[in-house]
Amino acid sequence: MQYVAAHTSVPIPKLYKIHTEESGRIYIEMEFVRGQTLSAVLDELSKDQTARIFAQLRQHVSALRALPPPAPGIVSSAFGNPAYDGRIGARFFGPMCVNEFQALARCDLVLEDVHFLGQEVLQVHTAHYETKFTHADLGARNIIVRGDNIAAIVDWAYSGWYPEYWEFTKAHFVIREAAWEENIRTAVPCYEKELAAEEVLWERIPEPGTAMAWHRDGLAKRTVCKVKCHLRTACFTDVKGASSPYPFGEDDSYMDVGACDGHSGLDVELALDRGRPALKRRHGRLRPREASANSPPPILSDSRPEIETMAVVLSQATAPMPQLVTLAAYNRGNLPQARNGHPDQRYGWRILILPQDARERHSASAFEATTACDVDSATSRLINAAGDWWLRASRHLDPTGDSTLLGQIAVGEVPMAASSDEIGELFSKVALPAEPQQNSLTWALDAVAAMQTRGWARKFDRNRLRDEAVAYADDRMHGAHAKEPRLKVLQQ
User: Fold this and answer.
1) Which of 136, 427, 488, 491 is the most buried (most CB within 10 A)?
2) CA distance 327 to 17
3) What is residue 450's predicted lDDT score, i.e. its pLDDT?
């Protein structure tokens, strides 16, 4: 942000102070910018108002792209240090060249196997690109407007020097808002082939840096998608309104707060509640739970639709807390299956196992039936090039950092005594999709049924759960205008 303020006239909030805790965690104090997020008003603007806003955005993006990089073809932060982008995983990377960066984006898959992913990926990953200064998280939720003027562009955590197409592709790496997609092409240079290639990678290649396990044909294997990290440096992850997994009230959504070294804004919330400079929060709150060794209280005591976040529950009990089990819906973007498929195929579906303790948020696990590929960590060769169904288990996740996560439906609790291996063993016995009408949702529903046999999931009517899950995901696709909460609790 300091770099952008010093070299351009792009409107951004003023940085007042950087605060450092004894633990080394950093957060930033910034200017309050009055206005509304573009996401909140875009559907209500006239054509002329919309055109004026996106014309201004085009000027700001052009100013960023006109800046000279610290070295030709470098991928790095603004000042030539390691960069951070959630698309590449929860790690720092660089400085590096474009070819190395694209290798990271495909999880270090060797070029000899890239053709299995299609011609778009092969052409893009063998082409030459310049690097441009990039916001890297450009979305309607990160633009504050007053009337038909842009008051500020916020959330610069990922900004830096990236391949010239990265601004355009990353502008689509969010919940798809129709009005945004219609207009963003007038403000950012279009790279349609590169977007098509990225969409294939989003769907078929796992997030870099994620521990994976797969089960197929009675075999099990663990792998880790590698990320090269040359140097650790401060990284600010903004915690604002609609773009944050833990949103604040609409009036409070324009103050950016960040946490250092990959910590999410949840730590910042904890710090603020301990008397640090406060952000007034209207939606969601921290609250202690009462101790009870024999009958732990429900994970969620407030499931009102207006609570737009999973409540953070801090335990004061000595007994281990159960883990929350959710049926999670993911945006599949503009892939053909998502556009034209059966309602069950419009979204990706996973079972998430989430620790209640906010301090262990990176300890979540995800289980899903998928036809995606994997990359062997030892050989960097493609696994499952044929696109067969297999069970993918992802460990040590922070799902709140995944911008494709639409929302979650709470379905049960798993005891802390149950290990990841035990949970994985249960899911490995759930039959993979084999018929055309079967998919990731039908597998997830079967997985819920398997958990019911252990007492880990509440009793649901399968058809009702399926219908409610699809309707829930349909609503969550409306982004800031969604009526459903980010975490929903169904009544039995």
Assistant:
1) 136
2) 40
3) 96
- Cβ density class 219-250: b for 16+ within 10 Å, e for less: eeeebbbbbbeeeeebbbbbbbbbbbbbbbeb
Q: At residue 145, what are phi and psi to the nearest 5 degrees?
A: -125, 150
CA distance 458 to 452: 6
Give yes or no for a cis peptide into 95 (omega within 30° of 0): yes
| 30 and 255 Cβ atoms separated by less than 8 Å | yes
Q: How far is 405 from 477, CA to CA, in rounded Å?
A: 10
The single residue listed with the structure tokens 């709140």 is 400
Side-by-side strand order, sheet with 487-489: 219-224, 211-216, 390-397, 364-370, 347-354, 323-331, 405-414, 487-489
Q: What is the pLDDT of residues 10-61, one digit of tens each?
A: 999 999 988 988 887 788 899 999 999 999 999 899 999 999 999 999 999 9
Is residue 180 classed as helix, strand or coil in its secondary structure?
Answer: helix
**Residue 17 Rama label (left phi>0; alpha psi -120 to 50; beta):** beta
Quick: pLDDT tens for 176-219: 678 898 899 999 999 999 999 999 998 888 766 554 444 444 44
Whether 413 contacts 299, CB under 8 Å: yes
Residues facing 15 on adjacent strands: 30
State the residue for tokens 């999670």: 328
The DSSP result for 27-67, as a single string, is EEEE----SEEHHHHGGGS-HHHHHHHHHHHHHHHHHHHTS
The pair of structure tokens assigned to 302 is 């407030």
Q: Which amino acid is at 251?
A: D
Taking phi over 0 as left and psi of -120 to 50 as alpha, with beta for the rest, 83 belongs to beta
